Protein: ABC transporter substrate-binding protein
Organism: Faecalibacterium taiwanense
Amino acid sequence: MKKMISRRNFLAAAGVVAAAGVLTACGGSSNSTAASASTAASGAAASGDTIKVGVLGPLTGDVSVYGQAVVNGATLYLKQVNEKGGINGKQLEIIAMDEQGDATQAVTCFTKMCDQGITALVGDVTTTPTLALAAESADYNMPMVTASATAEAVTYDAETDTVNENVFRATFTDPFQGIKMADYAYQRLGYTKAAVIFQKGADYNEGLAENFVNEFESLGGTIVDQETYSEGDVDYKTQLTTILGKAPEVVFCPNYYQEVGQILAQAESIGLAVPFLGGDGWDGLEGYATADQLKDAYFCANYAKGSNPDFEDAYKAEYGEEYPNGFAPLGYDAAMTVVYGIQAAEDAGLAAGDDDYKQAVIDAIAGGTIDGITGTFTFDEHHNPVKQTAILCFDGATPVLKEMF
């Protein structure tokens, strides 16, 4: 049986205020990028009780393209709940903060949110800050749903066989992605010889690479080469030339889209013309690679553009632009998951923010079924969603849904 962490010394909730979102950087400066999304969640501020929900992500810094998408997606859903009357007549107050892509800032933001009386958290976005929050939030038994952090350790410590009881995720894990793409490469595409290139020392990249290699070999395939590079590198030609000499049929490239674009361009320049495969870090690749470079390429993702027009239209209406990447739908589903739990706690008549309330939120999520826009999903024993994966290919340089797999 898995061990479950649930320590209960929650800080006292702050006084109830009007149902308007508050967006700040943890250092105290405001950020206007998503201010319109989190300000005045409902035109009529509730005169009675409200329910405070934290939404945390990197709205500035190197990974803000992901953080902004998650925060916008989550905020959109929470505002829609308010527009439909809230939860049992109570409005949701959105407290959004910018952790600037930094784990220390993330913890600082979280403790400030707790001081302000949040009952649950949507966040964080990338793996390292989310791991820090998973450890910190256990002391509060704070219900926490990350939209997009994929490292297995976010919800489950394999070394100690311990589940982080209060933490859930809306996205699939690094091991899941690596295994899924190995299965797709070998079983669906028929490749038997693969190479891998990935950033060393990064949980996401290494997690996908390791599981791809293990699964591909277990199926009977051969990994002809594994190449790594370091954070900050911009020249990959040495590694790609080595791969070229090993004559793979396909290259697995589990990296983020900016680096993927550079890798594909440099692969083309040295004559490495085999197809490339990737994980959800490829989401956002549009504009960073050409149609020729993406010929016969595939990657897995949680959401395919066009699969939910209602969400996409609502996002554009709210923010004046198309949704930027698949992190926005995940943010939406993470918020939906939080609200699913809060609804159960409210239906039970519990006092928002106390120990029984938070535990009721956690228990409801753990046993619930979420009818999300990235699919209908339940949660497994490690608090990971059980759902299908969207496999995307490219129409020119534009990612399109190939199939669910």
In short: The radius of gyration is 21 Å.
